Design the sequence.
């Protein structure tokens, strides 16, 4: 530990009337980090699937969902969504393996580019790490295969998510992330289009990010 950091921590401990941490305190801290206590999680509605509850919550926060059987159906779902809003057929996505497995050849009119957005892209396509049924939120991880620019710069964000990545509660999503390995540099929780109520307490969509949020939920995992 650096000298400056130790001085700061010592001052904090002194103000709290505590001495330097002993071995027992360190063991207690390590044990708590390894065995995190779970908060109270509300009971989920019985008789409804996690996917059904997730889709309902996404739509409740002004997002839209298309449910498809497999990755082979993704190009058609994306094309239909963009055409329905009279949006550009040009889109950009990262190199996530889930998106790399999508075959766009069935939709030759779709202009698909790969890489981070420079701000000129109207449509961004991303892979979601987890979908939270309780809130309709999608957990997005930053990285070279999932540029964060695609989550915020394009006016329309489309997220591809498999049903196997759905969880019931936020705590479950964080548990899945911890088990996946080292933490990414950034974790973004996306729930519906960007919005603000700063102007006369009137809700405006697309104020600080995407105006449209569309999720393509895939029932089957890729082979």
Sequence:
């Amino acid at each position: 530990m650096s000298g400056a950091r130790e001085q700061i921590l010592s001052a904090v401990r002194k103000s709290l009337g505590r001495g330097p941490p002993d071995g027992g305190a360190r063991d207690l801290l390590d044990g708590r980090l390894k065995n995190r206590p779970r908060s109270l999680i509300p009971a989920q509605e019985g008789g409804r699937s996690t996917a059904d509850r997730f889709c309902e919550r996404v739509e409740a926060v002004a997002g839209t969902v298309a449910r498809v059987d497999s990755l082979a159906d993704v190009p058609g779902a994306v094309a239909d969504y963009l055409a329905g809003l009279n949006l550009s057929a040009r889109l950009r996505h990262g190199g996530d393996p889930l998106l790399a497995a999508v075959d766009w050849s069935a939709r030759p009119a779709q202009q698909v580019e790969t890489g981070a957005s420079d701000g000129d892209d109207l449509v961004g396509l991303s892979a979601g790490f987890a979908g939270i049924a309780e809130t309709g939120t999608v957990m997005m991880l930053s990285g070279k295969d999932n540029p964060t620019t695609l989550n915020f710069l394009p006016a329309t964000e489309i997220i591809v998510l498999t049903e196997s990545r759905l969880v019931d509660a936020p705590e479950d999503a964080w548990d899945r992330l911890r088990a996946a390995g080292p933490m990414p540099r950034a974790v973004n929780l996306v729930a519906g289009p960007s919005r603000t109520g700063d102007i006369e307490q009137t809700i405006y969509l697309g104020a600080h990010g995407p105006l449209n949020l569309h999720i393509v939920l895939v029932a089957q995992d890729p082979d």
User: Anything to note?
Assistant: The chain has one domain: 50-218. The chain has a mean pLDDT of 88. The chain has seven helices and twelve strands. The CA atoms of residues 71 and 101 lie 8 Å apart.
